[in-house]
Amino acid sequence: MNWKKYAPIPYWQGILVALLLACLFTLKSYLRLKYFNELEYFKLGRTLGVHTVNYLLWALLLPLLNYFFERFPIHDSPWRTKGIALALSLTICFFHEFTSSLMLAIPANWLGYYPLGDDNMAYIIRGLRIAVPDRFLEYWIIYAILTAMRMQRKFRNKELELVKVENQLSSARLNALRLQLQPHFLFNTLNTISSLMEINVNAAQKVVSRLGGLLRFVLDKDERNFIPLREELEFVRNYLDIEQTRFNDRLSVQYDIDDATQEIWVPHLILQPLVENAIKHGFSNRSNDGKIEVITRKLDDKVEMVIRDDGCGTDLSPEELLRAGIGLSNVKKRLELLYGETAEMEITTRPEEGFSVCILLPIKRPEA
After folding, report:
1. Structure pTM?
2. What is the domain partition of the chain in residue ranges?
3. Which of 13, 42, 248, 353 is the least buried, fewest Cβ under 10 Å from its Cβ?
4. Which residues belong to any copy of the Histidine kinase domain (predicted)?
5. Count of CB atoms within 10 A of residue 110's CB?
């Protein structure tokens, strides 16, 4: 058996705990006898020796005990397993008490305190029926402690696995968003470039340059979930510049960027679905001019990001919008995945009064 695998704690820690318990129970015996005015019966060396041997032996047996606890658990197990566990506990308790008695008797014999003869062995055997119940209680206390440690370890491992899965899921959604962006956006942009080549080559070159920067951002980035807001805003500018050209400058964009937010790290591609939503639902179906506002602010230990349009709006509730809109629901789910309950996303809209999405995030450090 691999002892290190089943040792719940390093041996030195087990020995240290055993020595501390021996001192504690020796002090308890002293105080009890002092309270009853029976200190003449208190023998420091013997009392300390008995407790030290008792708890040291339990410390040395910890890997074996842990192995049996895992092999024959009491909870959620058939009665056969419970019976084996009970039989093992009694066997170990008898073994522990008999061995600890010998560990005390042999040095006592060597030092001449009392001989290790038949009478002494008979005394040890008779004492088993008195001492084994105490060892039995100690055995199941150790069982409870090791089981709690094992459950805590499993819970912590599950948490780590969950975090790993959540990160993988977040990366998968980010990659899906990248793939979703390319065919949806490229088709319209290439049509714009084709049209401009006939009437305004300089404008076509400008769109090609913007498109190149945008695709480089999408395709060349690693799988980080977070980037500086400065980079996210650069992507949004390229995106909106292309859309402004496509709509013959009927679309105006207003930026209100707090310089203090530039280096704050935010989820990668968190604003693109909101900007796309503003163009698709707030502007593309209108014949008149439209405006989109991109606002960022630093509020103490949080960053606020707002995407607002002056489009037609809607009378749907935020809950209905999240159910109906893939882009909005993806943003909401990503925020929940990355921030839990510490992120806020507020949707404000009314018919003919435009559409606004406000995201409030705790400030992330670059190593996130």
Report:
1. 0.52
2. 3-160, 251-368
3. 248
4. 270-365
5. 9
